[in-house]
Design a protein that fits this description.
The protein is of the alpha/beta class. The chain is built from twelve helices and 18 strands. It holds the Pfam family ADH_zinc_N.
Length: about 350
């Protein structure tokens, strides 16, 4: 089969690999209907995260079950399934509290930028659709696996509710999904910080009401002006840099919440500043499995279309171009047809 291997920074290749096999009775094997490149894949691609050795890439996936282990009961061969980028048993105490991304058996999916993939902990990770979906819904169901689930978690963690004023820091795919989520949760005003026209247009399509192109202190000043100097009821931090986190804290009103889902790189906090800011924070890797059934229903009923976030579609063989296009910001998110 064909799969994607990152050999070194900037060196990602589609190569022939052995097909995965059942290794544990809780495994399933699926044939992917589509995969994609995630913004977090760019960290090792850019050399900002040490890989040590060549690594199989890809953690977003949907497809058809080819084989199941002896202990798998919730999905069967032939089912179309969507799974979270975090593998979980969905039965430990943390899972039962809705934090499957902190499962006691937690592992992170790899090797999904491929034609076939092994899914450990299949019963707790995969959710099947009632029937095979229409082809045009595949991109949106793929988005549920991570990018939509992560944006939704950011809005959930920030306690977005009807009538809220929301600020989204970051106009990447996750930030755009945060806009969609905030709109679905009834936010009255959604302000996204964005400098890029194509991303601004998609944000407006998903429900953003205001665009702030300024950064740093200028961006904070602009948002304070838009909110009558109060700040936002909820802030979605979807980048993970020191600047983005600082901006999130500065535009949040006292008593508000920040949902932070950008993987942090070099982020540090000042304890006294946090103390006097009086802002709550909740984030981390998104417990996508908690939201999977609801988000899949929204997609299948065509109430949302997160698949529009894929603005570049390539065959798996051209995965290197998909990475390059996202690295150069020529694409928001690359869909890979397998």
């Amino acid at each position: 089969m064909l799969g994607t291997i990152l050999h070194a920074p900037g060196d990602v290749r589609c190569v022939h690999l052995p097909e995965p096999e059942i290794l544990a009775p809780t495994d399933a094997i699926i044939r992917l209907s589509a995969s994609c490149v995630c913004g977090s894949d760019l960290w090792p691609y850019r050399g900002l995260q040490d890989i040590g050795a060549p690594m199989a890439m890809g953690h977003e996936y949907c497809g058809v079950v080819l084989e199941i282990g002896a202990a798998v009961k919730n999905v069967k061969v032939g089912d179309f399934v969507v799974g979270s980028f975090v593998l979980s048993d969905n039965s430990c105490p943390h899972c039962k509290h809705g934090f499957q991304s902190s499962c006691e058996q937690r592992a992170f999916m790899t090797g999904a930028q491929a034609q076939i993939a092994r899914i450990p902990l299949a019963d707790g990770t995969l959710v099947a659709t009632p029937t095979h979906p229409d082809e045009d819904l595949i991109p949106s169901l793929l988005a549920v696996s991570d990018v939509l689930g992560t944006g939704w978690y950011a809005a959930d963690a920030a306690r977005v509710q009807a009538g809220s004023t929301v600020v989204v820091v970051g106009d990447g795919a996750v930030g755009l999904m945060g806009v969609l989520a905030a709109k679905q949760k009834g936010a009255e005003r959604i302000i996204i910080m964005s400098r890029h026209k194509t991303r601004q247009d998609l944000a407006l399509d998903y429900g953003a009401t205001d665009i702030v192109s300024e950064r740093g202190d200028d961006g904070v000043t602009r948002i304070k002006a838009l909110t009558q100097r109060i700040g936002a009821d909820a802030v979605l931090e979807c980048v993970g840099t020191q600047q983005s986190m600082t901006q999130a804290l500065q535009v949040a009103r006292p008593g508000s919440m920040i949902g932070y889902v950008g993987v942090p790189h070099g982020v540090q906090f000042d304890g006294a500043n946090l103390f006097f800011t009086q802002v709550g924070m909740l984030g981390g890797p998104a417990p996508v499995r908690r939201f999977l059934p609801h988000l899949m229903d929204l997609v299948l009923s065509r109430k949302i279309n997160p698949g529009k976030v894929f603005d570049l579609e390539l065959p798996l063989q051209d995965v290197a171009e998909g990475y390059k296009a996202m690295d150069e910001r020529r694409a928001i998110k690359t869909l890979l047809r397998v």
